[in-house]
Input
Amino acid sequence: MRSGFSIPRILLALLICVLVVAPLYMMVAISLKNDEQQVLVDFGNWRAFWVWPWAASLDNYRIVLADKQAPFLRFMFNTVLIVASIVIIGIFVNSACAFALSRLRFAGRGLILALIVALIIIPMEALAIPLLLMTARAGQLETYQAQIVPFIAHPFSIFLFYQFFSKLPKELDEAAFVEGATPFQVYWKIVLPLSLPVIATVAILQSLEYWNAYLWPLMVTRGPATRPVSLALAQFFGTPPYLWGQLMAFSVMMSLPVLILYLLFQRWFIQSVVNSAVKG
Amino acid sequence: MPTLRNRDTTAAAAIMTPALLLIACFIILPFVLAVALSFTDQRLVPNLNAPTGFVGLRNYLRLLGQPEFLQAFGNTFLFALIVTPLQSAMGLGAAILINSRLPARNVFRGIFFLPTVITMVVVSVIWFALYRIDGVFNQLLSLLTAGAAGPVDWLHQPWLALPAIILLSAWQGFPFQMVVYLAGLQQINPELYEAARVDGAKPWDEFWGVTMPGLRNTHIFVLVTTTILAFKLFTQVNMMTQGGPNGATQTVVRYIYEQGFSRGSVGIGAAASVIFFLVVLAISIAQRFVFRSDEEVR
Output
């Protein structure tokens, strides 16, 4: 057990790799076949996972990109705009709140902290219906803000920031206060620049959460104007007949940016999932 | 120092205002509304001829006596009951594998983590193709049984549809449990393993004697988080089976969505939301309880 690598273990690891990658591989293979009939014939055998290099075609990608009824790039833009707005505004709003809770002394601090921790448990799904009613009454259906504003303040992110800030040495801000800095200056110039690890964690976790959003956009969007890309795929998929080549090309194109980000920042991705689990 | 305190209070109020205002509007207000609306016959689209009225416990009584809702709850419980241990075991197995002497473990970890990065809508599309009547799963089935077991319509058989959803959910979700367990494994003192080996423990004894007890808190966290995540089951079901066949894959969240959104019965949807919240709350309180008793033991 201690000498060298065990062969069965390596084989097992390779087998898991195959099971993990095979469905993704099939997605890519089918997306490169421009003959729908051939796709259907290939479905049940190894050729579902294979495309001869000389037969590979980008036609499906071209068709998806050229579809004016369902503008792929617009959907992609919508998703990026929504997720980036939630994450970037959220980082400032949530970290500011956590800063006050962890570094300043004021009446009611413990109460507010307890309230925010308690709110972590409320699942978005339980709030969806009243939130939908509010959005509809405010005439905000079919808007970007309906998909951004309700999700900026995020109790769990506040909690993660709070944990991180509480561990920073007190001398840091005390010295700054002695020199006459205002609390906001301490937050902006001292605490925030030290918080890159927790900012990355919160950013990645929130990005994944809203990249995966499905229920809420399903209720508040109709047309392509503000619809995120995953909903557009769901709609494309939900309107038979199934055009598998195009469906898979759509899937590949929307997954590619996230996959590239993941490959570039792999350790950050995994670390942020771990950080979300290590509770104080 | 009262001056410091005053300065802090003003500053804190200013700094926290955006977050607290948003929380009040988009978490607390909808939450209060959910409770309030659950006692009314509120519609999504207002009907001028039938103004909203207070109906007392009618929505709750209707839900608890309605086979559809109870089936949705039963399915969701069953899903959580199976997917939670399955996914946790898969995650733990993969974590132990990566944590052992494995070459290029970071590469393997990176590959194993891939499904979590793929959004559930895409996963549903891919697996829908795998589950086709002429798809890969049926070919494998007929290969393994030498043609004895005919092709199965995985997503349209009442007894198979939920297991099919469970399988793809575990495939997509297990990397989360894997990386959490990996972190847990790395916190176990290596000396404990050394000591076990000196005592002549076999790998199997090490697993039950050192690894499992050392992961106690990780287990509790993983089980509770996964159970709550499982209770939110919606995307893959709505994509692949629309709750069918015959409600065999209907879930609580999908029921809430259908009632409150598709049918516009906000009152019923709100009551179902409240029940849903109470169940999630109960799971999380159970977690706190177990954590506490754990601390007392020490």
Notes: The CA atoms of residues 34 and 74 of chain B lie 23 Å apart. The mean pLDDT of chain B is 87. Chain B has 14 helices and no strands. The domain at 66-297 of chain B is CATH 1.10.3720.10 (MetI-like fold).
